[in-house]
Amino acid sequence: MAGGGSTHKELLTAQTRVWNYTFGYIRPLSLMVAVQLGIPDAVHSHGGPISLSDLASTVGVAEAGKVRALRRLMRALSHFGCFERSVTKAAAGEGEREADEEEVYAPTPFSSYLVKDSPTTAAPFLLLNTYPLFVSSWYSMAAWFRGERPESAYGFEAAHGGTVWESVSSVAELKALFNDCMACDARWAIALVTKEHPEVFKELTSLVDVGGGNGTSAKAIKDAFPDMRCTVLELRHVIAASPAVEGVDFVEGDMFEHVPTADAVLLKWVLHDWNDEDGVRILRRCREAVTRARERGGKVIIVDMVMSDGDGGVDWEEVEAQHLFDVYMLANTGGAERTEKEWRRILTAAGFSSCKITPDLGPRSIIEAYP
Ligand SMILES: C[S@@+](CC[C@H](N)C(=O)[O-])C[C@H]1O[C@@H](n2cnc3c(N)ncnc32)[C@H](O)[C@@H]1O
Ligand SMILES: O=c1cc(-c2ccc(O)cc2)oc2c(O)c(O)ccc12
Fold this sequence. Notes:
By secondary structure, the chain is an alpha/beta fold. The chain has 2 domains: 8-113, Winged helix-like DNA-binding domain superfamily/Winged helix DNA-binding domain (Arc Repressor Mutant, subunit A); 122-370, 3-Layer(aba) Sandwich (Rossmann fold). 47% of the residues lie in helices and 16% in strands. It has helices at residues 8-22, 26-37, 39-45, 52-59, 64-79, 109-112, 123-129, 132-135, 141-145, 155-160, 164-170, 172-196, 216-224, 236-241, 276-293, 316-332, 340-349, and strands at residues 50-51, 84-89, 101-106, 206-210, 229-234, 248-252, 264-268, 299-307, 338-339, 354-361, 364-370. A hairpin with a 2-residue loop joins strand 10 and strand 11 (364-370). Helix 11 (164-170) crosses helix 12 and helix 12 runs parallel beside helix 13. The longest helix has 25 residues, at 172-196. The chain is globular, with a radius of gyration of 24 Å. The ligand O=c1cc(-c2ccc(O)cc2)oc2c(O)c(O)ccc12 binds next to helix 7, helix 11 and helix 12. Residues 138-353 form the O-methyltransferase C-terminal domain.
């Protein structure tokens, strides 16, 4: 029998864990429904804990049965840590003998990331990654593992016959969500890097953000260091859809072919999209760009994850995020999150002599690579 040496309690816990992981998909999907209804916005803008009845009317839930359903959704979301739920005595109406108990919900740091118009919102990240086309890659993964889709490099291709980048550029709703998702992350992550680690940019006069999207990171760097000459290298369709950004030049090109000359290259959330072979090709072009500018002193600044290698003393939630991102890249882009050893191996293969890793961005790190 399975679990032969386990106690009764251990077996029950294991079975409960299987239930929880099986239903784990309900977490992102219930958060998605909450964002679609505007629940985090309503809770945050209320100016104090919001009652179920006020919440229901703010988000447009009117039928009594649906209000009761909303209460159950809020109870689950509060259990996940998204809101803080408590029970208060509602004021007794005229003629009522006793005040009814009513549930109220307060915001938490978790829900603050789901408010749509906040500068640090992760709502586009949630909506993009719960998009059905994207989730459906997983239904082709087993066939891909078994080699039944030899023409596909990874799950997304096996499921949809094209790459994530093709679907991003051709499905208008996905393109908008993808751009929003990248811009939201770039805005807060780069503001944090420039504020907490200004030394990374010390003595640099020019920087190229390779695969820099619509220029949000470059703008955040320009805001922090107004004298820096900032350029974005991007694919044609991305540049065509990006509004001009004051002080930032856009160059159309392919990072596998040529990277414009600059003191520094930024690669944020780019290398984890690619396998090692492609990563080395991109890094070689970046190394050439910074050595053309300065024989010594240039650098490549990478913002990506350095995966924990399983040793102790690490934050469990950050390691969980690293594993989730790693298998997400496996399924959707053919890329990977890398351990320190794996980073050093691809950097060395691309000709870099040393690197400095600063693990100070939650699950991500800043890697400064020197030619
Ligand atoms: C995951 S996004 C990261 C965007 C941005 N660096 C950020 O973190 O917000 C990867 C970017 O790489 C760009 N990209 C993909 N292939 C490229 C290529 N061959 N040359 C230049 N950019 C490319 C994509 O258009 C996309 O904007
Ligand atoms: O958070 C993401 C999401 C994507 C993504 C999701 C759905 C699509 O149809 C395309 C792309 O891609 C990402 C990515 O490439 C990255 O480097 C970081 C985050 C995400």
